[in-house]
Amino acid sequence: xxxxxxxxxxxxxxxxxxxxxxxxxxxxxxxxxxxxxxxxxxxxxxxxxxxxxxxxxxxxxxxxxxxxxxxxxxxxxxxxxxxxxxxxxxxxxxxxxxxxxxxxxxxxxxxxxxxxxxxxxxxxxxxxxxxxxxxxxxxxxxxxxxxxxxxxxxxxxxxxxxxxxxxxxxxxxxxxxxxxxxxxxxxxxxxxxxxxxxxxxxxxxxxxxxxxxxxxxxxxxxxxxxxxxxxxxxxxxxxxxxxxxxxxxxxxxxxxxxxxxxxxxxxxxxxxxxxxxxxxxxxxxxxxxxxxxxxxxxxxx
Length: 301
Prior knowledge:
By secondary structure, the protein is of the alpha/beta class. It has helices spanning 20-31, 74-83, 119-130, 148-156, 169-177, 208-212, 230-253; strands spanning 5-7, 13-15, 66-70, 89-93, 135-139, 159-162, 183-188, 194-200, 266-270, 282-286.
């Protein structure tokens, strides 16, 4: 029996087979005996406890959830700021300092008074001033300076957001995270004309290398000095922050994600008219497959 081939938004043809991500999320629901008991009223010393609730979502369910954000530059700073209303515990890893160019045109959330500070310290000051219920743990290190064992310890208790622009470290971080936690990679493309969000869920999706179709760091190019519109950067960060919140909520409550198609783990955000979005800015979803022989994602859980 041959499996049906489907055409993706980027023009690739892929085999349509059983979806492990959807099955994994369904299993989360089955293994959760009941939803988290959220009281009608919850006391908090800060206004950050405001309930952002709909019939299917209440932000109080993810208060205190731990996230590790690797990278506090353009995308990382905006994404962390957008996550802050959820009152999370966020580990921020970045060794660089705020420079004058970072404070111009809304490229980051930093302002001129913070020039010279480590980005993670500036980020902590900004976010915890605006959202006192969120905790930022600043870690002014390169990820290459942090041993595997320490990264694994941090990853095992958090969702990982990969928002850094380091070609050598991206594959390493993704490889370490794959067996232990959900990882969301956020990346801008040239001149912020587009970007992508790649989801790596242990043994439910392919690893990040398979999803991006890379074997090493060679195809990854640094864009940290690339010109780009603040609105385009924020558009990608905003899309990523909603994906992250959905994943956290599903992990905490066992509820399946219904707001977007979980069978598609590679999300393109187009800020201009281009091949994947011929009518103008938009979002395109695509699935990915494990490559035969991949030593990262073909291991048994």
